[in-house]
Amino acid sequence: MQTTRYRGLIAELRRAVIIIGLCLLAGIIVGQPLAGLVVGNVAYFFLLFREAQEFYRWLEGKSSTLPEANQVLVDVAEAIHFIRVRHRKTKRRLQQQLSRVEKSTSALADGVVVIAEGDSLQWWNAAAGEMLKLEAGTDSGQAITNFVRDPTFLAYLDAKDYSRPFQLQLTAESTRVLQLQVTQYGGNERLIVLRDVTHVTQLEQMRKDFVANVSHELRTPLTVLKGYFETFEGISEMLPPNVAKGLGQMSMQVERMNETVEDLMLLSRLDESDTLKTTALVDLSALARRVMTAAQMLSAERHEFLDEIEDGHRVLGVETELYSALSNIAFNAVKYSPEGGAIRFRLRAKGDKLSFSVKDEGVGIEPKHIPRLTERFYRADSSRNRKIGGTGLGLAITKHVLLRHQAEMKILSWPGKGSTFRAIFPRLKDSIETVDQSSARTNVGASAED
C-alpha cells in the first residue's frame, strides 16, 4: 500500500541517484569528484526545470504531452485530472439543479427576488419581474429601492425584523397591492417572496365597508326604539304585568344590540389605519387606576381587588382608545370571576417595555381557544357567554388598539385556575434614561455611604 502510494517519489529518487551517481563516477575517473558531483546536481535540477516548464504548459492547456520521465509529475497530473473530472461532474450537477430551480420558480405565481448586500438585485423570477417591472439585461445589480420607492419599505429592510410580512401599494395611481415576506440567509443576503394580495385586500375593504354601512344604518332605528322603550318604562306601572315584562326584555335586547353596533363602529374606525395619526402623552398609571375603579363599580363589591400599579409611567397614544382596550380586559375579569375571587391589577416597567396585566381567579380558558380569542364574535363557551352577556367584540377591539400603539397582548390561562391578560407597551426613551440616571445616582450614593 505504502509502496504504491510513493511509487512516483521512489522512481524520482532512483533517477536522481543515477544521474548524480554517473556524474560523480565520471568525476572520480578524471580525478575531479567534487566537480562531478556539482555537474550531476546542476544537470539534475536543469532537467527538473525543463520538465516543470512542460508541466505548467500542460496545466495551462498549451501542451497535450506530459514529461513522462518524471513519475512524480505524472502522479500529480493524474490527481489533478481526477479532481478536474470530479469538478466538471459537480458543476454539471449544480447547473442542472439550478436550471430546475429556475424553471420551478418561473412557474410560480408568486414573485421571488434575491438581493445581496447594499440591497442590490441579484436574481428574480418572471413573476417578480412582471410585478416590479424589472428588465433582466439592465436592472441586475441595482438597488431594489429604485423600484420600490416606499420609504416605509426602506425602513422595513433596514430594521431587519422580518417576523411580519410587509404590505405595499406600488404607486398612488395603482390599485395593485403586494405582500412581501423577507427571509435573511447567509451573510447579508435576503430572499423576498412577493404575493399579489389585491383581490384579498379588496374583499377585506368590502367587508369593512359593509360592516361600517350596516352599523351606521342600524344606529338610527335602534336609537328610535331605545327612546320609545325608555318612554314606556316611565309608564310601566300603568301597563299589564305581562306587557311590562315583555317591554323590559325588548329594551334589554335593544340595549345589547346598540352596544354591538357601537363596538362595530369603533372597530370600523380602528380598521381605517394600523397607525395613529395624532398622539399625546398618556399617563398610563392614572389610566390603569381609572380602569380598576370602573371594574370595582361593575363588581359591586363582589370581588377583591389588588392594586399593584406603579406610578409615573407614560406612553404615547390616544387615551380614549387605550381606556377602551384596557377596560375590556378588566371587565372580562370581573364577568368571569366567581364571587369573592381576587382580581389583581399590575403595571410595571421591565427593560424597554411597560406591562399592564389583569389576573383573575375565574374559570380559565382551554389552550385550544386562546389563539382565537381576539377574533370578532368568537366565544370559547357560547352557552356561558350568553348568560354573562357582552358583544364578543371586546378583545378584538383591544387587539386593534394595541397594534395601533405598537403594543401586543399576551394571554395566559389554565382551566379552573384563572387567566392573565397582559398588554405590553414600548417604553418611552426619556423614561428609560430617567430611571437609569436615578439608578446610577442611587448606586453612587450607596457607594459613598459604604
UniProtKB/TrEMBL annotation:
<dbReference type="InterPro" id="IPR003594">
    <property type="entry name" value="HATPase_dom"/>
</dbReference>
<keyword id="KW-0472">Membrane</keyword>
<dbReference type="InterPro" id="IPR014310">
    <property type="entry name" value="Sig_transdc_His_kinase_PhoR"/>
</dbReference>
<dbReference type="GO" id="GO:0005886">
    <property type="term" value="C:plasma membrane"/>
</dbReference>
<dbReference type="Pfam" id="PF11808">
    <property type="entry name" value="PhoR"/>
</dbReference>
<dbReference type="GO" id="GO:0000155">
    <property type="term" value="F:phosphorelay sensor kinase activity"/>
</dbReference>
<dbReference type="InterPro" id="IPR036097">
    <property type="entry name" value="HisK_dim/P_sf"/>
</dbReference>
<keyword id="KW-0597">Phosphoprotein</keyword>
<dbReference type="InterPro" id="IPR050351">
    <property type="entry name" value="BphY/WalK/GraS-like"/>
</dbReference>
<feature type="domain" description="Histidine kinase">
    <location>
        <begin position="213"/>
        <end position="429"/>
    </location>
</feature>
<keyword id="KW-0812">Transmembrane</keyword>
<dbReference type="InterPro" id="IPR021766">
    <property type="entry name" value="PhoR_N"/>
</dbReference>
<dbReference type="InterPro" id="IPR004358">
    <property type="entry name" value="Sig_transdc_His_kin-like_C"/>
</dbReference>
<keyword id="KW-0067">ATP-binding</keyword>
<dbReference type="InterPro" id="IPR003661">
    <property type="entry name" value="HisK_dim/P_dom"/>
</dbReference>
<protein>
    <recommendedName>
        <fullName>histidine kinase</fullName>
        <ecNumber>2.7.13.3</ecNumber>
    </recommendedName>
</protein>
<keyword id="KW-0808">Transferase</keyword>
<dbReference type="Pfam" id="PF00512">
    <property type="entry name" value="HisKA"/>
</dbReference>
<keyword id="KW-0902">Two-component regulatory system</keyword>
<keyword id="KW-0547">Nucleotide-binding</keyword>
<dbReference type="GO" id="GO:0004721">
    <property type="term" value="F:phosphoprotein phosphatase activity"/>
</dbReference>
<keyword id="KW-0813">Transport</keyword>
<dbReference type="Pfam" id="PF02518">
    <property type="entry name" value="HATPase_c"/>
</dbReference>
<keyword id="KW-1133">Transmembrane helix</keyword>
<dbReference type="InterPro" id="IPR036890">
    <property type="entry name" value="HATPase_C_sf"/>
</dbReference>
<dbReference type="InterPro" id="IPR005467">
    <property type="entry name" value="His_kinase_dom"/>
</dbReference>
<dbReference type="GO" id="GO:0016036">
    <property type="term" value="P:cellular response to phosphate starvation"/>
</dbReference>
<keyword id="KW-1003">Cell membrane</keyword>
<keyword id="KW-0418">Kinase</keyword>
<feature type="transmembrane region" description="Helical">
    <location>
        <begin position="16"/>
        <end position="49"/>
    </location>
</feature>
<dbReference type="GO" id="GO:0005524">
    <property type="term" value="F:ATP binding"/>
</dbReference>
